[in-house]
Write a structure and sequence with these properties.
Elements: H1 3-42, E1 59-63, E2 75-80, E3 84-86, H2 89-92, E4 94-96, E5 104-108, E6 111-115, E7 125-131, E8 134-136, E9 146-151, E10 159-167, E11 178-182, H3 189-192, E12 197-200, E13 206-212, E14 218-222, E15 238-240, E16 248-259, E17 265-277, E18 281-285, E19 295-302, E20 305-310, E21 319-322, E22 331-335, E23 341-346, H4 349-352, E24 356-366, E25 372-382, H5 387-411, E26 430-433, E27 442-446, E28 450-453, E29 458-464, E30 467-470, E31 474-477, E32 484-488, E33 496-501, E34 506-508, E35 517-522, E36 530-537, E37 546-550, E38 556-561, E39 566-572, E40 575-582, E41 605-607, E42 612-614, E43 619-625, H6 645-662
Parallel strand pairs: 10-18, 36-43
Antiparallel strand pairs: 1-2, 2-6, 3-8, 4-7, 5-6, 7-9, 10-13, 11-12, 11-14, 14-15, 16-17, 19-20, 20-23, 21-24, 22-23, 24-25, 26-27, 27-32, 28-34, 29-30, 29-33, 31-32, 33-35, 36-39, 37-38, 37-40, 40-41, 40-42
Length: about 675
């Protein structure tokens, strides 16, 4: 080979080597990009910043067709444009007319199948109201308030009624309550037969009853515990309207907006539609006071006390006849305000040391006709804690004391004297509730009824400069509370007080006496308080109406009566407050529920629609027109516990998206 050929061959080899290296680099680069792609595809979760599917499912076909006439189909099949699922179908889906035999409702793939088992009624419009139960399988986007309608006759009844149900006691939306109508306007329809047509409230307390024929109706709400669509149990929450309702419709126009993008409006057009009325009915729900009275249970947890628990109130306490003891003056009776809980404290030790007390107890009980009649039961009240058990506990306590004493002796230096060689004295337990606010009341509560009380041993002193001076007070039992007492005095701002009680001032029923009590009380300065006043108008309030101040948990913290349209709250601690009015029609100082048999609604409640931020040294004065806002818009959202499900879902989705972004 010539030198020229060798050079040519060498150059050719160099070119091939260079090309081979370049090809190798290309292969490595290609492999790198493929690896990145595979890794990215393997990651689970949504791409950061990518769009989310917020389009709800769309029904594309059904059998029978929506709005079908003369239909005899009891199996309804709905098909959608994507895979779907049902959320809480048993809670959200309701069929009208109501079905006595529970239908079967299930989702599979892109289908929803409903099987009806009741016989179809002739010439009747059927509606299957899914609410927002149908959602897409991936993002959970709800289809919205979707209802499927067909008729077994020659026409579809198209009228609708809508509104809201609130809890009458606190204006909370009532979720999951049946709302039904009757063409039978008699008062007995609600208690004797199922609704003609029915719906169910959503998380906002809203309802819409569809497929109604023209006519006049009565409307009711029912939290149906036995699923028979009839009010037949006292523990079922109900609602009713005093007047009849007549559904009607009218032409209306709504505006639809088309967007070029998320910020720019393209076109706003007016779309005609049919509005069904009334659509703003308001029903206030309540549970009736239990008036079926029976003995729930009796118990004797300790030898010296036995108790009866009843299902409802009565005007009298039971009469007891001792069968193995003399019942005359044998007890101190402690009863609740309505005599539904009654405790019997046994006075005589020879009596309460008996293992079993035999007695004939006569009490008022509701018979089959709903009347309160006397009933007598023979009861054998055996103590769950016998005298032997008590003595064993006492022996164990003494043994433990001796052990502790022995340990102390070992730790003591030789010659040092023991001062606690006697067992500790057991005193009558006294719970003292001190105060810091000038409007407060000192209370004392005892673990057992008192046999003796020496008020001369109670001392209340006021600090003047450096000296303590005795001041007058009133010490009295709290009405309806056998073991609770209160101490009343004139408290002054920024002043110091001292409550002292001498040893043995109180003696319990079973011989225990109280220990010394010392409680320091220092009142807050006036500069620490604010004042809140309301000028109230509207609503035709009763003379007994009062205002409750509420905390952020919707719980009352103060209460004042309304006088001449005004109410004042002095000495308020700084903080955020809410307020409501109880229209106390019967003047008994509490909210009272309704009674359907008497057509009596529950007492009215109104909420002040805003939070009030009370500050120290501030005097707030608020105008309150109880009719300025509809009842369903009055309660502030911050203290409304029953939030709308759509809001909960929106928050849940936003939280999920934020988590995906952080991955």
């Amino acid at each position: 080979m010539s030198s020229h050929d060798k050079k040519h061959q060498s150059a050719k080899f160099s070119i091939l080597c260079h090309f081979g290296k370049g090809l190798e680099r290309s292969r490595l680069l290609l492999f790198f990009f493929i690896s990145l792609l595979v890794f990215s595809c393997a990651r689970m979760g949504s791409p950061d910043g990518g769009p989310y599917d917020e389009t709800p499912p769309v029904m594309v076909h059904s059998n029978p067709a929506i709005g079908a006439l003369d239909s005899k189909e009891k199996r309804i099949v709905l098909e959608f444009d994507e895979y779907i699922k049902l959320e809480k179908a048993s809670e959200k889906v309701i069929i009208s007319p109501p079905q006595i035999e529970m239908p079967e409702i299930k989702a599979s793939g892109k289908r929803v199948v409903v099987e009806l088992f009741d016989t179809l009624k002739p010439n009747t419009t059927y509606s299957i109201d899914f609410g927002d139960a149908i959602v897409d399988n991936n993002e959970g986007n709800p289809m919205g308030q979707f209802a499927f309608t067909f008729s077994t006759g020659e026409a579809i009844d198209s009228m609708e009624l809508g509104g809201t149900i609130l809890d009458a006691s606190n204006l909370e939306p009532v979720k999951g309550m049946q709302v039904g109508i009757y063409a039978d306007l008699s008062d007995t329809a609600f208690t004797t037969r199922p609704f003609d047509r029915v719906s169910r409230t959503d998380s906002r307390g809203r309802f819409s009853i569809k497929g109604i024929a023209p006519g006049t109706y009565r409307i009711y709400g029912l939290m149906d515990s036995d699923q028979n669509y009839t009010f037949n149990q006292k523990n079922e929450m109900i609602a009713f309207m005093d007047s009849v309702v007549v559904p009607y419709s009218e032409p209306a126009v709504r505006q639809d907006t088309f967007w070029l993008d998320t910020l720019t409006i393209d076109t706003i057009i007016e779309v005609p539609y049919t509005r069904y009325l009334p659509d703003n009915l308001l029903l206030l729900a309540f549970k009736e006071e239990m008036d079926t009275r029976y003995l729930i249970k009796n118990e004797r947890l300790t030898p010296n006390k036995f108790s009866f628990y009843f299902s409802a109130k009565a005007d009298s306490v039971p009469y007891i006849k001792g069968l193995n003891f003399d019942e005359q003056e044998a007890f101190i009776i402690e009863s609740s305000a309505h005599n539904d809980t009654i405790h019997y404290w046994i006075k005589d030790s020879t009596l309460y040391n008996r293992d079993t007390l035999e007695m004939a107890v006569t009490y008022l009980c509701t018979d089959t006709l709903g009347r309160l009649v006397p009933q007598t039961d023979t009861l054998y009240m055996a103590s769950k804690k016998t005298r032997a058990m008590i003595e064993k506990e006492q022996a164990k306590e003494m043994e433990e004391f001796q052990k502790q004493l022995k340990k102390k002796r070992k730790r003591l230096k030789e010659g040092e004297e023991l001062t606690d060689t006697l067992p500790p004295i057991k005193f009558l337990n006294v719970k003292v509730n001190g105060i810091k606010d000038v409007h407060g009341t000192v209370s004392l509560e005892f673990e057992e009824p008192l046999a003796a009380c020496d008020t001369q041993a109670i001392h209340l002193r006021h600090k003047v400069d450096t000296l303590w001076e005795d001041i007058p007070y009133i010490f009295e039992p709290v009405e309806g509370r056998l073991r609770k007492y209160r101490l009343l005095a004139e408290w002054r701002p920024e002043q110091e007080y001292e409550l002292t009680v001498d040893s043995a001032a109180f003696v319990g029923l079973y011989g225990l006496h109280s220990n010394k009590v010392k409680q320091s009380l220092k009142m807050r300065s006036l500069d620490d308080y604010g004042t809140l006043a309301f000028d109230i108008r509207g609503g035709h309030l009763s003379p007994g109406a009062y205002v409750e101040l509420l905390n952020s948990q919707d719980k009352p913290v103060r209460r004042e009566a309304i006088e001449n349209g005004r109410v004042d709250f002095f000495f308020l601690n700084p903080g955020k407050y809410y307020a409501r009015i109880i229209d106390d029609r019967n003047g008994n100082g509490k909210w009272d529920t309704g009674l359907y048999a008497d057509k009596r609604q529950a007492e009215s409640v109104f909420y002040y629609p805003q939070v009030m931020d009370v500050r120290a040294l501030w005097d707030m004065r608020q105008d309150w027109d109880v009719q300025a806002l509809p009842i369903e818009q009055q309660k502030p959202l911050e203290i409304t516990k029953q939030k709308a499900d759509t809001e909960k879902k929106r928050r849940s989705k936003n939280e999920e998206r934020e988590r995906n972004k952080r991955k």
